[in-house]
Amino acid sequence: MTDRKKPAKDYSIYFQPPSYRDAKRRGKEDVRVHYDFKIADDLKSMGKGKFYHIQTYGCQMNEHDSEMMMGMLEEMGYTWTDNREEADVILLNTCAVRENAEDRVFGELGHLKSLKKEKPDLILGVCGCMSQEEGVVNRILTRHQYVDLIFGTHNIHRLPELLREAVFAKEMVVEVWSKEGDIIENLPKKRAGLKAWVNIMYGCDKFCTYCIVPYTRGKERSRRPADVIAEVRELARQGYKEITLLGQNVNAYGKDFEDIDYRFADLMADIQKIDIPRVRFTTSHPRDFDDKLIEVLARGGNMVEHIHLPVQSGSNEILKKMSRKYTRESYLELVRKIKEAIPNVVLTTDIIVGFPGETDAQFEETMSLVREAEFASAFTFIYSPREGTPAAKMADDVPMEVKKERLNRLNELVAELSLKDNMKLSGQTVEVLVEGVSKNNPEFLSGRTRTNKLVHFKGPASLTGQFIDVKITEVQTWLFKGEIAAVHALEA
Ligand code: 5AD
Ligand code: SF4
Asked: Domain Radical SAM core spans what residues (predicted)?
């Protein structure tokens, strides 16, 4: 960062703002794994009688990071509150992937300003991917000076120390490491419910031209297999019913190991042997999705028949401009192989419309690919320029009206395909993990199939956490209704 205006104030030793240039440097140096994380004894009573609130935006990785922050705060004696007015610490764990997510955070900061005025001792912190962005940190420094603490994605484990610093400092505490640090094991985690997230790797080296993630999350670093497996075994022992393995690009797992040849397929094969009923993973990059992985997934067992495989576009020209490093043809070939090996697989995807310069014809190629691949569902987005990424500098002559219209047409197609896929289950009996009383309709219980489809049915709330068989009686675009056919025997 050379041209950034220096903040007027003299910030503490913790003033360490982010730099994209440093973030982009991918060193060969080894990533060290630390097993000795500890919260200093004198910090363990800091939060006694005090309340905290964390607002989380964005992906599951962020949700899981929040669970770790919750774990640390509770070890410091803080208690969770839903009521922000009662909180002594409020953290916004932010997402940088699209502009509208960022706008929401800045809107929220505006609201919190008045709370901070009423309660000057409140510690207001911003963390997550937005804090890794140079522009965001500058904007907070100049326009939101009531923020007490900014820290990044690489130094979450520093939260207890940084919080102490923020409580005692007169100035804003900013600590954002541009370059990824080591892997910190044994952070406390406060998990909820029946499902657990498990990080298997951090960062992304793909540098798709539209994406900010390789800058905000650093280079690819895989957790050691033994550490992941020990965590999954422990979750099984604790009775979790489902885990989701997390990484920005899980298919690159293990590529960074220099001492062992152990990849994602090997990890999945080892996890397949662990007694946890359902295993998911997200998110996949088609480029690294290999035959060995398909073979392991095809064995089934606890590996569910749902694969999320972001395609982003169906046009080879756009895929090239996105630097996705595969073609429409190779993607469809991969889909064919997956469907052949796992006949009842449910495929979902991510799609960006309105990439700079996307023509009508190129968009139509996305529409036809979606039809050919027969996705059961898709997350669809209008391209959002991210400062510092190569695509943000590309000429874009596509009017927003056209982009919106494309998104609508795509969403209609996705809904049509979802209904078509759901119809396959009409009258069938499916295994459902009961998640509890439905939030939208308290008359019903809500649960999910192995393929992550939502099912509503009537039954006692005491079934929560159990696997049951449900006969599908009504098929909708995004939901099934059904009747309980059988309750599985409780596992020992
Ligand atoms: N604009 C729009 N969508 C984006 N995504 C990532 N970056 C952008 C961007 N700049 C989408 C991709 C990715 C998903 C998590 O978010 O589809 O798979
Ligand atoms: Fe972003 Fe591409 Fe990495 Fe996914 S694979 S996080 S889209 S750079």
From this structure: 190-420
Burial of 100 (0-12, 13-18, 19+ CB in 10 A): exposed
Chunk the chain into consecutive blocks of 10 residues (it has 492) and report each block's average pLDDT, rounded to whole numbers: 40 64 72 92 96 97 97 98 97 96 95 95 97 93 95 95 92 87 91 93 95 92 97 97 97 94 98 98 95 97 98 98 98 98 97 98 98 98 96 97 98 98 97 94 95 97 96 98 88 46
Burial of 7 (0-12, 13-18, 19+ CB in 10 A): middle
Q: At what angle do helices 134-143 and 99-118 cross, to 10 degrees?
A: 30
Site residues for ligand 1, CB cut-off 6 Å: 97-98, 210-211, 310, 312, 350, 352, 381, 383-384, 386
pTM: 0.93
Which of the ligands is closest to the CA of residue 407? Answer: 1
- Among residues 191, 158, 223, which one has the least CA distance to residue 14? 158
Relative to the CA of 217, which ligand 2 atom is closest?
6
Greatest Cα-to-Cα distance within the chain, rounded to the nearest angstrom: 68
Q: Domain with 300 in it: what CATH number?
A: 3.80.30.20
Query: What 3-state class would DSSP assign to 61?
Result: helix
Question: Which residue type sits at 421?
Answer: D
The CATH number of the domain where 483 resides is what? 2.40.50.140
The total number of structural domains that make up the chain: 3
Count of Cβ atoms closer than 10 Å to residue 222 Cβ: 26
> Omega before 283 cis (within 30°)?
yes
- Domain of 369 in residue numbering reads as 186-423
